[in-house]
């Protein structure tokens, strides 16, 4: 089996990063729900500790998102470069310079 092309790899990277970013957004929603639940539950002996841990986890997850956006933008740039490169290669193979 032939190794995947640079274009296939670049496409896979973009798809993986977008999927990863979506999972972080989903995690934020889940963490916010757990925080609301912890805030509503009274009487637990370690409720303050749990609430503090949940808030910290939420903040850490939110801090990841700007980096993810940068990674996705970089991966998209690489994908666009590969598309242009492949287009030129195809044009050269069929003898058309306008490709």
Automatic annotation (TrEMBL):
Superkingdom, natural source: Eukaryota
GO cellular component entries: cytosol; microtubule
Entry GO MF terms: beta-tubulin binding
BP term (GO), one: tubulin complex assembly
Predominant cellular place of this UniProt entry's protein: cytoplasm
Protein location: Cytoplasm, Cytoskeleton
Keyword terms of this UniProt record: Chaperone, Cytoplasm, Cytoskeleton, Microtubule
Recorded family membership: Belongs to the TBCA family.
Subunit structure comment from the entry: Supercomplex made of cofactors A to E. Cofactors A and D function by capturing and stabilizing tubulin in a quasi-native conformation. Cofactor E binds to the cofactor D-tubulin complex; interaction with cofactor C then causes the release of tubulin polypeptides that are committed to the native state.
Protein name per the record: Tubulin-specific chaperone A
């Amino acid at each position: 089996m032939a190794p995947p092309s640079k274009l296939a790899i670049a496409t896979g990277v973009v798809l993986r990063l977008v999927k990863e970013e979506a999972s972080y957004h989903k995690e934020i929603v889940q963490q916010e729900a757990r925080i609301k639940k912890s805030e509503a539950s009274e009487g637990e002996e370690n409720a303050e500790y749990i609430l503090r841990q949940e808030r910290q986890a939420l903040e850490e997850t939110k801090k990841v998102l700007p980096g993810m956006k940068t990674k996705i933008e970089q991966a998209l740039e690489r994908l666009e470069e590969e598309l242009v490169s492949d287009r030129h290669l195809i044009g050269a193979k069929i003898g058309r310079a306008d490709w």
